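Private note to self, pasted from the team thread so I don't lose it. Backbone tokens:
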């Protein structure tokens, strides 16, 4: 119940209580004291007057009390209203008071002032206020008021613009409340404040404008901007970041980037604590320009530069700026490549369109001598040597201007004045419109190349050791000489010179010594001939001298050639000082003439070779002219070689066996000697075909055949009680022995024929053993391990010293038949034989003498201590059947009867 209703009810109750008491008590009281009715009526009238007086007094009293109370309340209210009005006005806000029913309004002094009026100047009605509202705000404001009054919300507030006295507009915040309603509940009074918010509105607008400005900037910035929170990762970002990282908005928000790998500039893994965002948050400082490689699942790498700054309002967040530097990095690396390319071995100069030098590289300086500083601003003509004329340059520029490029060799001048050959390429650089902006010259110094070319030419035509023309140049000159001899009808000669015993020198003193000898020989040869003649090194220890302009008569020409040959012999015969050694050498010369008769170069060289071969054969240190008979021999040789190739498969070889006996002529072994039964020539002696086989490598299959046949023979012998201890000697040639698998071959044969290896004796010659002593020892030792025996054949003809012999695992020395032959008559042979036998004894080796033909020879040998013999005296080499027949005889007959 409302306050005023309660008050009215209280008054009514007091009045009702008094009236009821009066009615019920006053009549009873009068009736008890007044008994007559006249007096009673009279007193009842007086009682009525009293009632009126008392009730009036009561009403007066109650009304007075109530009014007094209302007045006090109102006064209090007024006072409090005044106080808050004062407070509000003091705070700068205006106050208003409005009766919605009467539209009467009160606007405080401050209210008026805010919009430029003096107190009471503004019409005191609500409608006057409405009339001053901004047209854009009016409807909104009225609907807010309407809404407030009907919705009975507690507080009304609205912002609007109101026209000031001077016509300007001010933003006002009006706040108020309904303070009373009439008995029907209709709004009776609204009061409120009126604050000037114009400045706030301006500020807000500014903020909004700024916000929009920054937002737009954020959106269109080509660099990625993001807000990173140390816990939640990227919380806000602009579209550029999505574009740079190539990730969708959702992906960024879901943290898909966590799956990526991050790289340092050196491509190594970057840890999270190195990220600029996390560092900026942790260290609370700006972290700038950290280069990060973002490696995605696809393997693609995006290179970024990231800066981060902590946010002052949130210590766990920062703003990061991400720039895509992938292209820049690419460009930088291309730039590095370009810079490196610019600094190549080739000189580079760049000019402007007017041919003024702008830049040169280090190689340019190295080649020309001009530094970059000296070259800049100059015309490249600075390098001109004067060797090319004006028309050369005009052709060059014509080419550049039409085709855009010129390339060629040119002579230029260095800063020090030296003129040098150069390879130059000039390229015109054009802009988009086809206008020349620059010229680029690339130059390389050809000085060294030319020298190298010269050197290569020298290598191609000259022997590097002796500096003499080589085979190629000789043949070239021979061709010219032959043509010239035809033209001039003269004779020329080719001398083929071979140094005697050069191989022995090389083997004994080593190759460097051999080289020194060759150099000295070359000098002597050159000084032995005329200037126009050619001295060449043909290969190894072979030299060829080409002589021209001899007499047209071949005999005279031959004697002229012989004279030169003699001069050469004389020169080469002189002792050589090689290092500290004095060396005496001789040579063999093969000569042939050439003239107008048509001959091929090959033929001519072959003739000279054959002649030289003949000279060697004839005892060395001689000059031999080629003659056709000689050629015939060679032809035969070649044919023989062809036949030899087929000999094995045609089963034309046979082994003959020659008995070996002891002092009492008791057979203890044999030597296997090969025989070739040629279908046309009959039996060919090994002396004829073994050297040929050695030259052509045919000795390898032949030698193997001999070994295998010998092993097969041993196998048979060892199973026969009478021959079980028989040792079979087999000749082994140098080439055969030097085969890398020779030991294996022997071992396999021993195994294959299951022979006692000690029954196989390999005969080696001195010269082949000393060729490479270390390898020889290794091979011999390996064979020795197998149990094979060794005999040193032709002993005494070579150069073997005791020192070498000691190192060889030999079993036997074989005295060469040349010493045996004259032993009865030649004291020196006897001495040699004695020495050989003494040597063998001192080395604990057996000795056997070969070629023993007479009793006398045997006697002499026996007297010197030789106990084993081989020779026609005991038996010639014979086929196996014959051998075994006579062997049987000798084994069952007295020893002396073992003759063939
Ligand atoms: N005047 C004379 N000569 C005698 C006498 N006793 C033996 N001869 C001969 O002297 C040579 C001894 O063989 P060689 O010094 O190893 O010399 C052998 C050997 O170096 C080589 N030769 C023979 N067969 C083979 C073979 O199977 N392989 C190899 N690599 N060389 C072989 O051929 C050379 C010549 O062999 P042959 O003509 O068979 O000549 C044999 C033999 O018939 C004699 O009392 N008086």
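Design output:
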């Amino acid at each position: 119940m409302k306050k005023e209703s309660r008050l009215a009810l209280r008054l009514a109750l007091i009045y009702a209580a008094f009236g009821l008491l009066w009615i019920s008590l006053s009549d009873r009281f009068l009736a008890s004291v007044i008994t007559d009715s006249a007096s009673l009526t009279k007193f009842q009238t007086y009682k009525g007057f009293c009632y009126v007086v008392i009730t009036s007094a009561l009403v007066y009293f109650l009304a007075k009390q109530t009014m007094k109370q209302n007045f006090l309340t109102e006064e209090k209210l007024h006072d409090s209203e005044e106080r808050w009005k004062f407070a509000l006005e003091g705070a700068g806000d205006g106050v208003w008071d409005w009766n919605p029913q009467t539209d009467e309004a009160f606007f405080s002094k401050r209210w008026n002032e805010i919009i430029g009026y003096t107190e009471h100047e503004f019409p005191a009605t609500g409608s006057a206020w409405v009339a001053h509202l901004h047209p854009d705000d009016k409807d909104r404001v009225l609907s807010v008021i309407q809404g407030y009054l009907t919705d009975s919300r507690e507080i009304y507030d609205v912002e609007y613009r109101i026209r000031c006295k001077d016509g300007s507009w001010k933003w006002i915040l009006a706040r108020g409340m309904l303070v009373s309603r009439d008995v029907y509940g209709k709004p009776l009074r609204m009061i409120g404040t009126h604050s000037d918010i114009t400045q706030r509105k301006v500020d807000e607008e500014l903020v909004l404008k700024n916000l929009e400005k920054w937002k737009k900037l954020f959106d269109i910035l080509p660099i990625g901007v993001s807000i990173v929170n140390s816990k939640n990762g990227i919380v806000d970002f602009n579209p550029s970041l999505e574009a740079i990282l190539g990730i969708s908005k959702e992906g960024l928000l879901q943290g898909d980037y966590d799956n990526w790998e991050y790289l340092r500039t050196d491509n190594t893994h970057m840890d999270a604590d190195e990220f600029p965002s996390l560092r900026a948050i942790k260290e609370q400082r700006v972290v700038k320009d950290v280069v990060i490689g973002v490696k995605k699942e696809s393997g693609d790498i995006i290179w970024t530069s990231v800066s981060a700054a902590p946010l002052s309002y949130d210590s766990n967040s920062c703003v990061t700026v991400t720039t895509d530097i992938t292209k820049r990095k690419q460009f930088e690396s291309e730039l590095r490549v370009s810079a490196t390319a610019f600094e190549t071995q080739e000189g580079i100069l760049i000019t402007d369109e007017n041919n003024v030098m702008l830049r040169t590289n280090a190689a340019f300086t190295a080649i020309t001598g001009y530094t970059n500083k000296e070259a800049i601003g100059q015309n490249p003509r600075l390098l001109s040597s004067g060797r090319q004329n004006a028309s050369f340059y005009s052709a060059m520029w014509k080419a550049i201007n039409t085709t855009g490029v010129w390339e060629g060799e040119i002579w230029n001048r260095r800063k020090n004045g030296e003129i040098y050959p150069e390879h130059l390429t000039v390229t015109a650089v054009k802009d988009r419109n086809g206008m020349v902006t620059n010229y680029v010259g690339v130059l390389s110094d050809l000085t060294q190349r030319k020298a190298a070319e010269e050197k290569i030419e020298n290598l191609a035509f000259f022997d590097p050791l002796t500096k003499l023309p080589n085979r190629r140049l000789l043949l070239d000159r021979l061709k010219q000489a032959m043509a010239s001899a035809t033209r001039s009808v003269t004779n020329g000669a080719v001398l083929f010179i071979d140094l005697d015993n050069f191989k022995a020198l090389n083997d004994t003193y080593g190759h460097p010594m051999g080289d020194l000898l060759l150099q000295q020989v070359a000098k002597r040869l050159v000084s032995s001939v005329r200037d126009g003649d050619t001295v060449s090194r043909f290969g190894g220890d072979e030299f060829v001298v080409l002589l021209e302009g001899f007499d047209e008569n071949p005999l005279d020409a031959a004697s002229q050639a012989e004279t030169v040959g003699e001069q050469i012999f004389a020169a080469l015969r002189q002792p050589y000082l090689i290092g500290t050694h004095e060396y005496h050498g001789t040579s063999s010369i093969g000569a042939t003439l050439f003239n107008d008769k048509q001959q091929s170069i090959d033929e001519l060289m072959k003739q000279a070779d054959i002649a030289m071969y003949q000279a060697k054969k004839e005892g060395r240190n001689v000059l031999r002219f080629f003659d056709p008979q000689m050629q015939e021999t060679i032809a035969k040789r070649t044919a023989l070689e062809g036949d030899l190739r087929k000999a094995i498969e045609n089963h034309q070889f046979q082994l003959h066996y020659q008995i070996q006996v002891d002092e009492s002529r008791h057979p203890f072994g044999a030597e296997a000697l090969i025989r070739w039964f040629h279908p046309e020539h009959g039996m060919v002696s090994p002396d004829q075909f073994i050297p040929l086989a050695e030259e052509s490598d045919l000795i390898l299959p032949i030698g193997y055949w001999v070994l295998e046949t010998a092993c097969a023979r041993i196998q048979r012998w060892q199973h026969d009680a009478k021959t079980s201890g028989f040792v079979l000697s087999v000749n082994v040639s140098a080439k055969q022995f030097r085969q890398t698998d020779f030991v294996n071959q022997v071992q396999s044969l021993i195994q294959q024929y299951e022979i006692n290896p000690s029954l196989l004796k390999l005969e080696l010659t001195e010269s082949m053993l000393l060729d490479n002593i270390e390898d020889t020892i290794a091979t011999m030792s390996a064979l020795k391990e197998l149990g094979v025996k060794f005999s040193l054949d032709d002993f005494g003809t070579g150069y073997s010293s005791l020192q070498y012999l000691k190192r060889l695992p030999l079993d036997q020395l074989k005295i060469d038949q040349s010493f045996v032959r004259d032993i009865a008559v030649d004291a020196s042979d006897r001495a040699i034989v004695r020495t050989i036998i003494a040597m063998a004894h001192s080395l604990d080796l057996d000795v056997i003498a070969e070629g023993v033909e007479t009793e006398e020879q045997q006697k002499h040998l026996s007297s010197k201590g030789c106990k084993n013999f081989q020779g026609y005296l005991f038996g010639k080499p014979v086929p196996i059947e014959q051998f075994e027949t006579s062997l049987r005889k000798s084994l069952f007959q007295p020893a002396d009867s073992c003759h063939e």
